[in-house]
Amino acid sequence: MALDEWLLDELVEGRGSAVFRLYTWSAPTLSLGFHQHTLERHWSLIEQQGRINLVRRPSGGRAVLHGGCLTYALLWPEAPGPRRFSYQVASQWLLDGFRQLGIPLTFGSAAPGLQRSSCFASSTSADLVEAGGAKRVGSAQLWRQGHLLQHGSVQLAPCPRLWLELFGAAPPPLAPLPIGGDALVDHLRRSAEAGLGGHAFESRPLSAQELGAIEERRQQARPLRLIAAPAVLSRPD
Questions:
Q1: If you write DSSP's letter for every residue of the chain in order, what string do you get?
Q2: In this predicted structure, what is the pLDDT of residue 228?
Q3: Cβ contact 70:23 at 8 Å
Q4: Which residue ranges form the domains of the chain, and what is each CATH number?
Q5: pLDDT digit of tens for each residue in the chain (237 aa)?
Q6: Selection from 70, 76, 234 nearest residue 138 by Cα
Q7: Where in the sequence numbering do the catalytic residues fall?
């Protein structure tokens, strides 16, 4: 995600262009939204046990468990507003792609709130849900000088045990997908190409200089400064 924020800053400095990325995670990772400052006490314990990594996203929203999911990042120069409209336009490729898989999605309707620690505990107009209400895609944005970074997590097969341990609830009951692995990635990429400009994407590796700049940014990033949530004390009747 440091790479995604670096790409956004490249847009701000006039050196970048539109970028679309799909990626997975090498280890289970809990990413916290930029404005999420309360850390559940048991999350630190699970991190200390080496079972998850903890990172902060540059974009907003609540905590997302990455693992059994696809993450996407869309860098959009001079994106149009208002934000609700930009979410709709930037998510159309997902609506199209899942409809072609026989799983229609719609935007959520819950009001944004900070009362829950998990991004997937509610579904706002920035999110995409299945017909039964299960949240398939959670998205969040970061705007800088009119340029947009939109992050999203597409849940595929979240780990029920770890999800329950982190959030105290089961993961959303998602419909099984007819394809997976590389076939799913290729399908979503083609859907993004059709819905985000209508032409094939140009792929290129990062240069050594670019990788060095990103690593320097990652090393200089502020560590997570989170406040542990207060312990809940039970009172006998």
A1: -HHHHHHHHHHHTT----EEEEE--SS-EEEE-TT--EE-HHHHHHHHTTS-EEEE-SS-SSBEEESSEEEEEEEETT--SSHHHHHHHHTHHHHHHHHHTT---EE--PPP-SS-SBGGGS--TTSEE-TTS-EEEEEEEEEETTEEEEEEEEESS--HHHHHHHHSSPPP-PPPPS--HHHHHHHHHHHHHHHTTSSPPPP-PPPHHHHHHHHHHHHHSPPP--EEPPPPPP---
A2: 47
A3: yes
A4: 2-198+218-225 (3.30.930.10)
A5: 889 999 999 999 999 999 999 999 999 999 998 888 778 889 999 999 999 999 888 998 889 999 999 999 999 999 988 888 999 999 999 999 999 999 999 999 865 555 567 888 878 888 999 999 999 999 999 999 999 999 999 999 999 999 999 999 999 999 999 999 999 999 999 999 999 988 899 998 888 988 998 888 777 655 455 444 443 333 333
A6: 70
A7: 119
Residue whose pair of structure tokens reads 């398939």 in the numeric block: 136
Cis before 82? omega within 30: yes
pTM as predicted: 0.87
Q: How far apart are CA 106 and CA 18, in angstroms?
A: 25
Count the neighbouring beta carbons within 10 Å of the beta carbon of residue 231.
6
- Backbone phi and psi for residue 184, each to the nearest 5 degrees, phi listed first: -70, -45
The pair of three-digit structure tokens given for residue 49, joined into one six-digit string: 């046990």
Cα 77 from chain centroid? Answer: 19
